[in-house]
Design brief:
Layout: H1 27-38, H2 41-49, H3 64-76, H4 82-91, H5 93-99, H6 110-119, H7 122-138, E1 146-155, E2 163-165, H8 172-182, H9 190-199, E3 210-212, E4 219-222, E5 228-239, E6 244-252, H10 257-274, E7 283-285, H11 293-301, E8 305-307, H12 322-336, H13 338-361, H14 372-396, H15 406-434, E9 438-439, E10 445-446
Parallel strand pairs: 1-7, 7-8
Antiparallel strand pairs: 1-5, 2-3, 4-5, 5-6, 9-10
Length: 453
């Protein structure tokens, strides 16, 4: 075989589309597309999004199925920005095949994703999330009786130095300069202000006094690593039996856990009902940050059994309703039992793992969008992709495209490729059998090609 050499001269300006190289497709995305096609996802989402587009004739926009697939790619490929997603799709033939784009079609750019996201309401993104849950329900994966709840912080697309006072609009830098002058530092430089701010005692920043100009919905919060940033709070309600997230809510970062528990559990139950599940949530496990007597009484009134550890504190029941005391004592008894201890271990394992997949591996810890509404849209589809990964793992043995690396991954890839090739061959065979015979000029009838033998 002769040595091939890279050509430096200018290539031909015109190439026939039939001569363009075609990608066989990534085995993971091929199976994921088959899963979505089986559920008729594209036809469903186009009907759902039809009301958000004009009825007049014009240049067709990007199909909603492509838009949501690109957001799924953001999770599976570990891309946090729309620019990164758009570049990755344009650079990969297998991803273009997953999007359903031909060899001569360009993939959408990041600005197209922004336009479509702003055009589609939050309700559509919620329904796509529920569609994935219904897919899990149809595959007999979803359970939903026992759920675990936990929350974490999501770094906002806003800097702390951009905050201003709610009253008067004074910038933080001006505020620091005034404090530095009072301490005897004349005409401080930016470096002087940085050192002064880092070392001053009694430093506090209240969300009641300060807000971000660029993202007013973000709140000042302490992150998991101990640093202080403008952030959002995300809360997962996870079905322990199936590892499926049945509720993913984005809240203001300064809202406490016990304040958002009711909203998240009710939304999770709503998602289960809309997904076609007839199972009702019966047990709720959470950490001690969610413990509040009013929450426990509410859960008892709705027939929910709670497993929420409580802080060590003395309680006085003389001025409290009897329902609160009964709910607290019943929850305490369950937590100390064997099932309560097991659910506590499972809660810390499963929910923390869901955060690791979505925020760390899926690169969702920092959002590049602004506003609670826009952040919620993207995060819902990010978690829906995580649920699809769980389904892919249970159905086919792989949960992400990168799972195909290594020896076991290579075996799974080979198996998926063989199944895909077998399905293609069977489909082609059926097409040849059903193809009409052709009559020749001599009056004889010829069988379709491939069946003459």
């Amino acid at each position: 075989m002769a040595l091939g050499k890279r050509k430096e001269e200018q290539q031909s300006l015109w190439v026939a589309s039939t001569d363009l190289p075609k990608s066989p497709g990534h085995p993971f995305y091929v199976k994921l597309n088959a899963l979505l096609a089986e559920a008729e996802f594209d036809a469903w989402v186009e009907r759902r999004c039809e009301a958000s587009y004009a009825e007049t004739m014009g240049r067709p926009s990007i199909p909603p199925g492509i838009y949501f697939r690109m957001l799924l790619i953001g999770y599976f490929e570990g891309l946090d920005s729309q620019r990164g997603i758009a570049w990755r799709c344009s650079d990969s033939r297998s991803l273009c095949s997953f999007l359903g784009l031909g060899p001569t079609e360009e993939s959408p750019d990041h600005s197209s994703l922004t336009r479509i996201r702003k055009r589609l309401p939050l309700e559509v993104h919620e329904e796509v999330f529920q569609f994935v849950l219904s897919l899990a329900q149809s595959k007999n994966i979803l359970r939903g009786k026992t759920v675990a709840v936990d929350s974490t912080t999501l770094e906002a697309n806003a800097a702390m130095k951009s905050i201003v006072r709610k009253e008067g609009g004074e910038e933080y830098k001006e505020y620091l300069k005034k404090l530095a002058v009072e301490e005897g530092i004349e005409d401080p430089s930016d470096e002087d202000l940085r050192r002064f701010d880092k070392g001053r005692k009694g430093k506090t920043l209240s969300n009641e006094e300060w807000e971000s100009k660029s993202d007013p919905d973000s709140r000042i919060a302490k992150m998991k690593d101990g640093t202080t940033h403008l952030a959002y709070k995300v809360e997962h309600v996870l079905d322990i039996a199936s590892d499926i997230v049945v509720g993913a809510e984005v809240h203001h970062a300064n809202r406490s856990d016990h304040e958002t528990l009711k909203e998240s559990v009710v939304q999770a139950q709503t998602n289960l009902v809309l997904a076609g599940s007839e199972v009702a949530v019966e047990e709720v496990a959470a950490d001690k940050g969610y413990h509040k007597a009013e929450n426990l009484a509410w859960a008892m009134a709705w027939g929910l059994r709670t497993y929420i550890p409580e802080r060590e504190e003395k309680r006085k029941w003389s001025d409290k309703p009897a329902e609160l005391k009964r709910a607290v004592y019943a929850n305490r008894r369950r937590v100390r039992g064997g099932r309560g201890r097991r659910l506590g271990r499972l809660r810390s394992e499963y929910v923390e793992r869901s955060f690791a997949h979505v925020l760390e591996t899926g690169k969702g810890r920092r959002t590049w969008l602004r506003g609670l509404l826009e952040v919620s849209k993207r995060y819902l589809i990010h978690v829906a992709a995580k649920n699809l990964g769980v389904m892919m793992r249970k159905l086919f043995g792989i949960g992400t495209p990168r799972s195909l690396q290594g020896g076991l991954g290579a075996s799974s890839a080979l198996l998926l490729a063989m199944l895909t090739a077998l399905m293609t061959a069977m489909r082609d065979g059926v097409d040849r059998i059903l193809a009409p015979t052709t009559e020749q000029p001599d009056g004889h009838r010829r069988l379709p090609s491939g069946l003459a033998a």
